[in-house]
Structures are given as structure tokens and as C-alpha cells.
Write a structure and sequence with these properties.
The chain is mainly alpha-helical and 136 residues long. It is built from four helices and two strands. The two termini are 42 Å apart.
Length: 136
């Protein structure tokens, strides 16, 4: 059995009688160049997030100054106003910091981790071909 398989594989006469179809040139298939991805949305999200993080430090500084003024104030009406302002600016600072960090993370995801928007299912119809492709 092994000798017969070796003879059929190595027989030059069988290879010489091969179909001429294999010698024809391959058809030219046009390959579409991938679209350049635009990442302006991701960059805008990251820049906005960085601005919010920077703004949170400014708000923290204002809240600290309002609290310091609250500590030295002697007028009861002014004490309540300064304390309320310090608490409000502190909460705004915290919210700005968290929102900015989330925006930076979202921008990084959109720029580097999200897969391209190409469809998994595509149909190519031409004069000489019709193909349905599914990528997974």
C-alpha cells in the first residue's frame, strides 16, 4: 500500500498530464484600502476630561479658601454663607474630578480599545463575482 502511494505521488507521467487549468494566471482581485479612522471624538473627550480634572483643582483651591474664611469669620450670617459656599465648591470639585476621569477613560477606550466599525457580514457583487463573507 505504501509503495503504491509513493509510486502515484512520485510518478512524473501523472504530473505531466495535469490539467492545464492550474497554469492559468490567478484572477486579479481588487482590495479596498481600509478607511483612515478618525479619532477626533476620542481626542475631544480626553481633552475635555483633562480640562475637568484641571478645573477640579481650581475648585478645590476656592473651596479651601472659602473654608479658611469661614474659620476666621465672626459674623453669624456670613459664617453660614461661607460654609455653604465651601461645601458647594468642594462637591463641585469632586464631581468635576470624577467626571473628568471618566471622560479620559472613555476617550482612551474609544481611541485604542474599541474595534473598528466594519460590519461582520459583507456582500460583494460584481460583473464576474458574487460573494457573501462573514468575519468572526
Amino acid at each position: 500500500m505504501l509503495a503504491l502511494a509513493t509510486f502515484l505521488i512520485a510518478d512524473p507521467f501523472v504530473a505531466a498530464c495535469a490539467s492545464a487549468q492550474a497554469a492559468s494566471p490567478f484572477p486579479v482581485v481588487a482590495v479596498e484600502a481600509p478607511r483612515a479612522a478618525r479619532h477626533w471624538g476620542a481626542y475631544l473627550l480626553m481633552a475635555s476630561g483633562a480640562a475637568l480634572v484641571g478645573g477640579s483643582f481650581l475648585l478645590t483651591d476656592r473651596a479651601n479658601r472659602a473654608y479658611d474664611s469661614y474659620l476666621v469669620e465672626t459674623d453669624p450670617n456670613r459664617i453660614e454663607t461661607l460654609y455653604d459656599r465651601a461645601v458647594l465648591e468642594d462637591r463641585l470639585s469632586s464631581a468635576s474630578l470624577v467626571a473628568g476621569e471618566l471622560m479620559i477613560v472613555g476617550g482612551l477606550y474609544l481611541r485604542f480599545l474599541r474595534p473598528p466599525r466594519s460590519s461582520r457580514l459583507s456582500l460583494s457583487i460584481g460583473s464576474r463575482r458574487c460573494a457573501l463573507a462573514y468575519r468572526f
